[in-house]
Amino acid sequence: MQKEKQILLAFFDILGTSKMLNKGDYQNVYDYYTFMAKLCSDTHTPIAVVDRLSRFRYPEIDSSQERYLIINYRLKHCFFSDTFLLWIELDSFLQPTMAGFLEKCCIIFCEALKREIPLRGVISKGTAIMDEENRIFLGKPLAEAAKAEPHQNWLGVGFGRTICDIHPMDMRYTLPYRKHLKSTEKDKKHLKSIEEELFSEIVLDWPSWWRENEKIDAVQIINRMNTNVSFESYYANCISFVEASKKRKEVWDTFFLLQDIDTLSKLCATDDDSHNDEQKVAIQKGVEILTAQNVLDFLQNIGVQNKIEWLDEKDQRSLEYLQNGCILVNEKSVYLNQLKR
Questions:
Q1: Mean pLDDT across the chain
Q2: Which one of 53, 75, 127, 275 is most buried, by most CB atoms within 10 A?
Q3: Which SS3 state, helix, strand or coil, does residue 100 take?
């Protein structure tokens, strides 16, 4: 009897498979599937895990400092039609990081791109039953990934909402980004709930891996693939992400700054009289951070006065308000100087 297990899952969909097969491009798809099967079958993926016994082996080392071990996790996979799954089983006791698995996902995406195969995916985690013998796969990460995947308007790999914490070791393969979500006038009211229910704010930064390992410009390949006006936005958004990835430091710094703005905004959302001493200290610390000269210099350097390509409208507006010395609290502008005590 199959037992429930914690897994880290990548759900990939090859876009336009029917069109490729109708054109007789069987060999290209077959070659990619063959490569994928080999990549997934004959390798394990190295994962860093917390060394729970280090305090016994190294008593002279400060026990508050976590030590890590590298363990080779078996990489599992399943192909069906134009969709394939890649996953590893997790041991929550060891607190595994994701970097090794994310690197494999970068390789998978980049190999597809080299073959001009349009790929889109979602990475998720949680409890699932993965019965390989009977090919029965059930669980929250599969349901989340399958539901989220079509809501992306690009070639790329988003993260499901179940992945909300990123370890510093994982940051090499990730980037904060939200402009990959589909948005039309018809569903803009519903889009917020889709973001909150299905997507994390983090995506797979495959362009960084590409720049380190490939010589040809990825944008050249993406432009060659853009042959159908109906899906032009997929390729345009993919290119926008490639450009954002080149500014990794600015993107991450912007993300952390937006987190600080959001934290202060939530603290100030309730009446002053209801704040306890700890909250009052936190508010003053938040004001101090957001009015620091290095923050003002950063806003100037990234050009907040112009549209920042990697930000959505909400985040762009938050930075514009901050540059003017304000934050939004309950959708109303509040000057930071008014919050100083």
A1: 83
A2: 75
A3: helix
Is residue 207 over pLDDT 60?
yes
289 forms beta bridges with none
- Whole-number pLDDT of residue 78: 84
Domain segments of the chain as ranges: 5-246, 252-339
What's the CA gap between 120 and 15, in Å, rounded?
7
- Rounded distance between C-alpha atoms, residue 282 and residue 294, angstroms: 19
pLDDT at 45: 67
Q: For residue 152, what is the DSSP state?
A: B
pLDDT in the model for residue 57? 43
Q: Say whether domain 5-246 belongs to CATH 3.30.70.
A: yes
What whole-number distance in Å separates Cα of residue 159 and Cα of residue 125? 9
Q: Measured between alpha carbons, how far is residue 279 from residues 263, 312, 318 in Å?
A: 11, 29, 22
Contact between 10 and 157 under an 8 Å Cβ cutoff? The reply is yes
- DSSP for residue 188: H
